[in-house]
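Incident log, structure service

09:12 report received: a user says their structure output differs between two submissions of the same chain.
09:20 pulled the input from the user's history:
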Amino acid sequence: MTRTHTVVDSPYGPLTLVATDSVLSGLYMTGQRHRPAEETFGAPDPRPFAEAVHQLDAYFAGGLTHFDLPLHLSGTPFQLSVWARLRAIPYGETRSYGDLADALGNPGASRAVGLANGRNPIGIIVPCHRVIGASGSLTGYGGGLDRKQRLLAFERGAADDALF
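09:34 re-ran on a clean worker, output below:
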């Protein structure tokens, strides 16, 4: 198993992209909660990330609403099921933790869904920012609530996604 990484600029700060055997396995923001130690990212090498960078650039330019990339997601079966549900949330829309728990056939699992959501290793592309509290509140986000609010506003076409 070979890991490599690169860092790219974005309107939301630098993004560290990590690949495992040349397949995207991580997208981390600066100061992100549950961000792995830098030494686990592998050697710097931008080559495996050309398509991911291209799609991220298109997303940030407002021209891409659905990512189509091979992903190497590592987690428990429950986490993988939550992350698959995240990828099904349409651009510009949100779902509550309870909605996701219901969709998974386990209506009492909203807290577990929240924990799995917080451990999502591929932010933005696996859109954990689209999950909100039952009351519509912006509850938790590993990249920070400011970024979550800005990403949601950006996807809704609002003008208040100005840089930090």
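09:41 both user submissions now match this output. Likely a transient worker issue. Closing.
09:42 reviewer note: Residues 50-60 form the longest helix (11 residues). The chain has a mean pLDDT of 92.
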